[in-house]
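Hi there,

I know you've been waiting on this one. I reran it after we fixed the sequence typo, so this is the corrected version. Both the input and the resulting structure follow.
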Amino acid sequence: MKFSNLITSCAGLIVGSALLIGLAVQSEAAEFSLAKARVGDGIPKSLTGKPGDAKKGRSTAIHRKRGNCLACHTMPAPEQADHGNIGPDLTGVGSRYKPAELRLRLVSSKTLNSDTLMPSFYLKSGFHRVQKKWKGKTILKAQDIEDILAYLVTLKDK
């Protein structure tokens, strides 16, 4: 198999699995406007108005049927096998990015890199060929985003 075909297949598998594995989908993003929330390369304000819970965020991030960050990223989660290597290693990510920058990457990484394979976890429009049951819905809830963010900012370089 050609490398380009392998990458395309992997991208389809990742995005397809994120949509098909039944991740929580919420209508709460109906009021969310990325254009209004974004400031430079980040989203400085919480999506919920309250801080996230790092313990819940870690659980969601490594859960194979919820955040599933391990599909693409290596993470400090030794209890989980088969970490991905398509995306950057998340070890120390809290030292490399500000919370606002991480929040934007979780909400819609494509606004910073149109070629990224990372799905937009908190947008519900602007996509092509979306299954009918997923139209107008987000992959994760706002609180899930804030919880994952709370976890990611704890991942500091030593």
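Quick highlight: The chain has a mean pLDDT of 83.

Best,
R. S.
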